[in-house]
Amino acid sequence: MTDVVIRTEGLVKDYGSVRALNGVDLQIERGEVFGFLGPNGAGKSTTIRVLLDLLRPTAGRAEVFGVAPVDGGAELRRRIGYLPGELAMRGRQTAGDLLQHLASLRGGLGSERIVPLAERFGLDLDRPIRGLSKGNKQKVGVVQAFMHAPELLILDEPSSGLDPLLQREFLDLVLEARDRGATVFMSSHVLSEIEDVAGRVAIIRAGEIVDLDDVRTLRHRAGQSVELEFADHIDVEAFRHVPGVYDPEVEGTTLTCLLRGEPDALLKVVANHRVIRWAAQDRELEDLFLDFYRMPVEDQAVKEVATDGR
Amino acid sequence: MAADTLPVLTGVVRDQRRSLALWSLALAAVSAMYIAFYPSIGESAMEEMIATMPEDLIIAMGYERIGSAAGYITSTVYGLLGPILLLVFAVSTGARLVAGEEEDGTLELELTSPVERRRVFVERLLALWLDVLLLVAVLTLVSYALVQAFDLDVGFTFLLAGSAGMYLMVIGMGTIALGIGAVTGRRAVGLGVAAALAVLAFILDAIGPVVDVGWMTAISPFSWYLENDPLTNGFDVRGLLLLAIVPVVFAAAGLIRFDRRDLMV
User: Fold this and answer.
1) How would you class B159 by CB atoms within 10 Å of its CB: exposed for 0-12, middle for 13-18, buried for 19 or more?
2) Contact between A54 and B109 using a beta-carbon 8 Å cutoff
3) CATH 1.25.40 describes domain A221-309
4) Which CATH homologous superfamily contains domain A4-219?
5) pLDDT tens readout for residues B202-229
6) Scanning A169, B147, B167, B243, which has its CA 20 to 30 A from the CA of A223?
7) Residues of B with Cβ-Cβ distance to A15 under 8 angstroms
8) CA angle (A116 as vertex; A80, A122 as ends), nearest 5
9) pLDDT tens digits, residue range A64-97?
10) Phi and psi angles of residue A271, each rounded to the nearest 5 degrees, phi first
11) Are the Cβ atoms of A54 and B112 closer than 8 angstroms?
12) What's the complex ipTM?
């Protein structure tokens, strides 16, 4: 039995004249929690829909458990739990009825886990779907994806709509699945949503994988926006050559810069002055994408840092 | 019904319970009202009324047969209101069951479950056929009950012959809506094509005899259904066979394309 659970090679998907995927290569191994990051419209859902045989590739190959989704058919999907990115459900039935129905599509598999999972997420099974909030609908989606304890979980933007507490609960569920040997492939447009559980992360942009790394390297590369306010005027030159500091700018008594890697060197330079206020914020993934598409010089810098980070 | 053997169909029908009950009520009420109306007018009054109408209108509406109970029921319940109500139901339901639910995304969890795509299509088609069967059965039984109650001269077999034709004609149009929807993935296209064809079939059947052009009734499913007056003459095998071709052809076309194309849930 192969240890590669998901493999795509040069996967291309066109919608009419629009190219949604332009040669996606992925390899996800058994037992991995794999993050699939990218802005909206980058091709995350398209890739996922190819894996579930909703869409057929224009060119290239996709394999799940060593079989093309179109050949694997229903038997292949039996091994997968899927949480759609935009969950649409008919409204009149109750959440419990819908979940029972979805279990019956699997020959009843997982129906005994509906109640415990619903309790864990505080989902009222007796309420009609259409009266549910976005968060509660998402709970229905989570329950149906996990209830049959599948070997592979494909989760498209799984924590959208869940409040932070339930997001935590959800991530625990992901880790439990991993601990029993399941493979998890989850997409998001926000790194922070998946960085706590994901091992490796691929970044997709405009239908191409632009980066593939483990999550720590990625976080390091993304860096932090640092803002420091000093008691007196300072000279921006003092920060130009500090290791890990990029794009320093001084406005009045305030320094802003991008910090990658350890803050140690910056702190030691800063320590020569009196600091009134400081803020350091993890950068959004969008900023990271901008990095990938900057001037060649900047690209060079990114690569250097990447090598350092390993 | 076995939820384990036909889970998709079971899910669809369970979802429709309320709407099926309302449609049954509407059909029962309309059939009962019209048939109950007949004895109170009496055959002679009916004939007097028709004598005042222009001849072409009488032919177009099929009112030349309205003098007998079988003719009256054919012209009203079986030839007009029954088919119209059933077609509205079948065409809208057919367009929704595959293309509509694909468009609004509710089909996604079913299509990504361990049920073959073909099976999703077939069970949804069967659900439509079963829905219409139920509604036609209601219409038939209510009609028969009224026929019995007023002691009208229409045998059960003759009602059944009419109902069989009506059933096949209606699932034909419903299957066009479902099949075209499954081919295109567009609810509006399935709905539009099927509704247009149903109206066209009705118009050809109505004006064909007036302008006396044979091909019009030859290609109209509505004529295949009623041309030989099943309520008076019983089963018309040729007409029923022609009617049966429509759902089979469009079901096959829908199934083949649905199995191969991208699904945009």
Assistant:
1) buried
2) no
3) no
4) P-loop containing nucleotide triphosphate hydrolases (3.40.50.300)
5) 999 999 988 888 899 999 999 999 999 9
6) A169
7) 262
8) 105
9) 999 999 999 999 999 999 999 989 998 789 999 9
10) -60, -15
11) yes
12) 0.87
